[in-house]
């Protein structure tokens, strides 16, 4: 637990292991232009929603959804209980600390794939939830704060339901059968990352998370109202301004593979700030480990051959952890490079 940022006394200066050399720090600041993530209202007509999601996905790869069906109570309770968790005494969380990336429920600092000398300014509570055996998963989650298991279970069930509806809308818009992305490709554990970014004494010298693409199928982020997420866009970075009551949605690498590149998994990063702690909850819709994933036949032709190899999700994860998050901060977003390593 001594490695956890939030458990240490307030930092007067940035510890040396978090300071990046100048050539590894991002040179581009978030754009000041009037570019923002599209906002999709899921209460509108189905045809209109399908078009909006596809347009947003193709243009930026990220969008925010409102009127999405996840109750405001579930969202507020999740925010509250996660903040309460990080305020617990260190002894109440010590048994959860682990650097074993195979452990389903744990807390850790920085990222799962640290291979360089520098660390990232983040603590994370990782929770995994199997469907439909949600109750069995909850038994492994922390029992403090008292309401955590109940709140996380309700939030996860509702958020996964939202994710599956977005996937159905995408399938319809792409001309696939509505349930094409159901089954093993979305049937793995739903993984939650409760990300906690404490106030940082020198935000210009470090990052909360490096530029990366998500390796899963679909991500839904419950954002803090404290900005920090930035999205790559046309050689620049968009600073995401969260909308109250909205989820931020982005496509994972597996969705790019299935659509043979029609939809893109877009690079994003997290910046730190000087004065305020920031807590977010990322919900990852994951394939099963042995799911074989490749471009759908519907997107292939003599003029449009496969851009990606067909791999099991386990093989993809193994290579991703080496290639996508190596010691360099200039991370490649080319999935072909990941697959060439096999």
Description of the structure:
It is globular, with a radius of gyration of 19 Å. The strands form three sheets. It has an eight-stranded mixed β-sheet with strand order 1-2-10-7-12-5-4-3. It has a four-stranded antiparallel β-sheet with strand order 6-11-8-9, with no helix packed on it. It is 25% helix and 19% strand. The protein has one domain: B-lactam Antibiotic, Isopenicillin N Synthase, Chain (Jelly Rolls, Sandwich). It contains seven helices and 14 strands. The chain has 342 residues and is an alpha+beta fold. Pfam families: 2OG-FeII_Oxy, DIOX_N. This is Fe2OG dioxygenase domain-containing protein.
Low-confidence stretches: 325-333
User: What's the name of the CATH homologous superfamily?
Assistant: B-lactam Antibiotic, Isopenicillin N Synthase, Chain
Number of domains: 1
Nearest-integer average pLDDT: 87
CATH fold-level topology:
Jelly Rolls
* Structural class category: alpha+beta
Roughly how much helix do the residues carry, as a percent range? Answer: 10-25%
* Radius of gyration (Å): 19 Å
Q: Give the C-level CATH assignment.
A: Mainly Beta
In DSSP terms (H or I, runs of 4 or more residues), the helix count works out at: 7
The dominant shape is: globular
The total strand number stands at 14
The helix/strand series, from N terminus to C terminus, equals EHEHEEHHEEEEEEHEEEEHH
Could you tell me how far the N terminus lies from the C terminus, measured between alpha carbons in angstroms?
A: 36 Å
Name given to the CATH architecture: Sandwich
Q: Proportion of β residues?
A: 15-25%
How would a textbook summarize the main sheet? 8 strands, mixed
The side-by-side strand order for the widest beta sheet comes to 1-2-10-7-12-5-4-3
Keywords: Iron, Metal-binding, Oxidoreductase
InterPro entries: DIOX_N, IPNS-like_FE2OG_OXY, IPNS-like_sf, Oxoglu/Fe-dep_dioxygenase_dom, Plant_2OG-oxidoreductases
GO molecular function: metal ion binding; oxidoreductase activity
Domain Fe2OG dioxygenase: 187-287
């Amino acid at each position: 637990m001594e490695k956890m940022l939030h458990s240490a006394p307030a930092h007067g200066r940035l510890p040396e292991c978090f300071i990046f050399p100048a050539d590894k720090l991002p040179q581009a600041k978030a754009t000041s232009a009037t570019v923002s993530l599209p906002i999709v209202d899921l209460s509108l007509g189905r045809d209109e929603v399908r078009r909006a999601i596809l347009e947003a996905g193709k243009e930026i790869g990220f969008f925010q959804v409102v009127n999405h069906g996840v109750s405001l109570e579930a969202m507020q309770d999740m925010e509250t209980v996660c903040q309460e968790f990080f305020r617990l005494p260190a002894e109440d969380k010590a048994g959860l600390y682990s650097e074993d990336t195979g452990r389903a429920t744990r807390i850790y600092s920085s990222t799962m794939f640290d291979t360089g000398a520098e660390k990232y300014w983040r603590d994370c509570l990782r929770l995994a939830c199997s469907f439909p055996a949600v109750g069995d998963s909850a038994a492994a989650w922390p029992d403090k704060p008292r309401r955590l298991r109940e709140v996380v279970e309700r939030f996860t069930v509702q958020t996964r339901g939202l994710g599956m509806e977005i996937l159905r809308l995408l399938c319809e818009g792409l001309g696939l059968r509505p349930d094409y992305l159901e089954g093993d490709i979305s049937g793995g554990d739903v993984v939650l990352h409760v990300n906690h970014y404490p106030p940082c004494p020198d935000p210009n010298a470090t990052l909360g998370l490096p530029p990366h693409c998500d390796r899963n199928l679909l991500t839904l982020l419950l954002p803090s109202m404290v900005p920090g997420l930035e999205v790559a866009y046309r050689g620049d970075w968009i600073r995401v301004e969260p909308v109250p009551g909205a989820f931020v949605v982005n496509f994972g690498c597996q969705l790019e593979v299935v659509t043979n590149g029609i939809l893109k998994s877009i690079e994003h990063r997290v910046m730190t700030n000087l004065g305020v702690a920031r807590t977010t909850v990322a919900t990852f819709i994951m394939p099963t480990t042995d799911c074989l994933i490749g471009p759908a036949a519907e997107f292939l032709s003599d003029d449009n051959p496969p851009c990606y190899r067909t791999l099991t999700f386990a093989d993809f994860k193994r290579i991703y952890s080496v290639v996508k998050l190596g010691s360099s901060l200039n991370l490649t977003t080319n999935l072909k490079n990941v697959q060439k390593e096999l």
